[in-house]
Design brief:
The chain has 117 residues and is mainly alpha-helical. The protein is built from 3 helices and no strands.
Length: 117
């Protein structure tokens, strides 16, 4: 857990040093003053944050409109269509496979009947 980039060990060390230098009477007053200052700082910067967010909105929309086609292109590159085998491979496969011929009158469709003598 980090608070403002300060880990738990560093935070404990700062609290111990504050207790030593400020004393037990002044430490609660200093913590209260620090809390008020941080609260005021947060509320003073809120309008600035909102204005920056409004100014960044067109940039975010442009970023999304550019990113979508790039995402689509990336998906096409990562998952291409299965390529067709070369013609020579098809011929070799066909040449090596056993061929069956049908004699006259074997087929049941209209094309086979039309070819009969």
């Amino acid at each position: 857990m980090n608070l403002f980039g300060i880990g738990p060990f560093e935070l404990a060390l700062v609290l111990i040093l504050a207790l030593v230098f400020l004393g037990p009477e002044e430490l609660p007053k200093a913590a209260r003053a620090l809390g008020k200052a941080l609260y005021q700082l947060q509320h003073m910067t809120e309008p600035i944050r909102a204005e920056v967010a409004r100014a960044m909105q067109p940039l975010e929309e442009a970023k999304q409109s550019i990113a979508q086609p790039l995402t689509d292109l990336q998906q096409q590159i990562q998952h291409p269509l299965t390529p067709r085998p070369p013609e020579s491979a098809v011929k070799v496969t066909t040449a090596n496979s056993p061929q069956t011929t049908s004699g006259p009158g074997v087929g049941d469709n209209a094309d086979d009947r039309a070819e009969r003598p």
